[in-house]
Amino acid sequence: MIEMSKKFHISSEEDIKSGKTTDVYFSRTERILEAEGESDREVVAEVTSGSLPNGWPWGVLSGVDEVANLFEDVPVNVWTFPEGTIFRPYDVNGYRVPLMIIEGKYQNFLSLETPMLGLLCHSSGISTKSARVRKVAGDKNILAFGIRRMHPALAPMLDRAAFIGGFDGVSSLAGAEEIDRDPMGTMPHSLIIVLRDQIKAWKAFDKHIPEDVPRIALVDTYSDEKMESIKASESLKERLDGVRLDTPSSRRGDFAELIREVRWELDIRGFEHVDIVVSGGLDEYSIPALKEAGAESFGVGTSVTNAPVLDLSMDIVEVDGELAAKRGKLGGKKKTWRCEKCLENIVKPADGDRPNCPICGGETGPGLELLVEGGEIVKDMPAPEVIRDRVLNQLENFELDLDDEG
C-alpha cells in the first residue's frame, strides 16, 4: 500500500515557486549549464500563441497576476499585456504577437517556464470561453456553475477566470471570495428530493434564505416543467423571481420550444415578472436560440471550466544581445504596438519607431507594460471587477462567426 504524504494531490505555493512543478528537462538543462560554466547567459524570451483552439479568432489573456507572483524575487524583468487583454495570435502583418517578454539570466528562471505557461494557458482558456459566452448572451445574466467538474483546489482560479471573461457571478464560496462578490445560485434537486415535495421546498427556501437572495425555483425534478413553473408561481406569487429549467438532455426535446411554452403559460397567468433561468450543457453555440426563446439567465458549467487551454509557448529570441530563435520563430527583442481605436497589434523590432495603424489609421501605443523589474512587482494588480470591465469594453471590437469555426 502506498503511503500518501499529502491528503490531496496538489502542489503547494512553495512547490510552484521553487520550480518543483517544472519538466525534468529544464532541471537537466540547469545542471548542464552550470557544469559548462554557462550560467551567466542573458536571454530574452517571449510568450506567443501560434493558434487558438477550434479556430477561435481571438483570446483573452488572464493569469497575469499569478505570473507576477511567480517571478517575484526572481532577478528578471517581465513585460506583459495587461490582464484581460483580448488579442489575435498574429498582428496585422502576420507576425506572432508577443504576449509577454521575460529578460534575464536564463539560469534564474528556466525552471519556471512550465508553471508560468500553465498559469497563463489554463486561466486564459477559461476567460476566452467565458468571453465568447458573454458575446452571444448580450445583456443577459450568466453564472459560472462548473466547479464540480474540476479539481476543487482550482475553484478560485476557475471562477475568477470566468468572471474576468464576462460572467456576472459564480456559484462557489471560494470563487466568490476571490472576486469579492456574493456567491450566486438557486437550489439543488437534492433539496426537493429530501423534502419529498416541490412546493414545500420552494416555500422553505423562501422562508429561510435571506431576502437579498433571488427566489429561483427549480422546476424539473419530478414532473412537467410547465406545470411545475405554474405551481411555483402560484405558490410564491410576487415573491418568485424566476424558475430554473435544468432539464436533462434525455427529456429535453426542443429546449427552445419548451422555454417558449413555459413563458407563454406564465405570462397569460399574470406572472410576467418571473424570469426563466436555464442550465445544463450550455455554451456559446446553444445559448442564442434559448435567448431568443425567452430565457433571461444562463447557468453555464462544464463548457467553461473544461474549456480548452490556450496553446501558448515560450521561446528564446536573444542570447547575450545576439539574435537567436529556433526555426518557425522570429529572432530579436520586439515591441508590440496596439491601435487605440481598432485594437489591432503591430509587431516591430524593439528599436523601431512607433507606427500608425495600417488598418484604420489610428494612433498606436505600447501594448506591453512592465510587470516585474529585477524581481520586484512594479505594476499594481487591478481588481477582478476592473479586469472584467476591460474585457467587456474590448468585446465590442471583436466578433464571433460560429459557423466558420472548427
The percentage of residues in β strands lies in 15-25%
- Strand line-up across the major sheet: 13-12-1-5-3-17-18
Helical percentage: 25-40%
CATH level-3 fold name of the largest domain: nicotinate phosphoribosyltransferase
Multimeric organization: single chain
Q: Provide the gyration radius in Å.
A: 25 Å
Total strands: the figure is 18
- How would you characterize the largest beta sheet? 7 strands, antiparallel
A few lines on this structure:
The protein has 2 domains: 13-124 and 309-404, nicotinate phosphoribosyltransferase (Alpha-Beta Barrel), CATH 3.20.140; 138-305, Aldolase class I (TIM Barrel, Alpha-Beta Barrel).
Helices and strands, with pairings:
Elements: H1 13-17, H2 24-35, E1 42-49, E2 59-60, H3 64-71, E3 76-80, E4 86-87, E5 100-105, H4 106-109, H5 113-137, E6 141-144, H6 155-164, E7 169-170, H7 173-178, H8 189-195, H9 198-208, E8 216-218, H10 225-236, E9 242-245, H11 249-252, H12 255-267, E10 275-279, H13 287-293, E11 297-300, H14 302-305, E12 312-319, E13 322-323, E14 334-339, E15 345-349, E16 364-366, E17 369-373, E18 376-377, H15 384-395
Parallel strand pairs: 6-7, 6-11, 8-9, 9-10, 10-11
Antiparallel strand pairs: 1-5, 1-12, 2-4, 3-5, 3-17, 12-13, 14-15, 14-16, 17-18
Helix pairs in contact: 3-5, 5-6, 8-9, 9-10, 10-12, 12-13
